[in-house]
Amino acid sequence: MGYKPHKIEMKRGRRRGKRPEPAQYLCERCGKPTVLPFIPRGTAPILCKGCLRKKKKREEQEARAAANLQARREREAAAQAMA
Ligand SMILES: [Zn+2]
Q1: What residues sit around ligand 1, an ion, with C-beta below 5 angstroms?
Q2: CA geometry: angle at 22 spanning 40 and 13, to 5°?
Q3: pTM for this model (two decimals)
């Protein structure tokens, strides 16, 4: 019959023991090479540790400033309501 039993199975592309290696990327901010413990998916900027820390600090400061502004607006609104 037309049945051919010698089907060759191609097992390629799956090397054993292949771990996700920590890859080197360039920091988007300062251009320094940095090793990421994860694979970037393009949703977040690639930053080195230093820039990441700075960014977090800045975000904290901005969050605090926004909270202060909000509080001041509320105080002003309350003061106007009193007047
Ligand atoms: Zn950097």
Answers
A1: 27, 29-30, 32, 48, 51
A2: 85
A3: 0.55
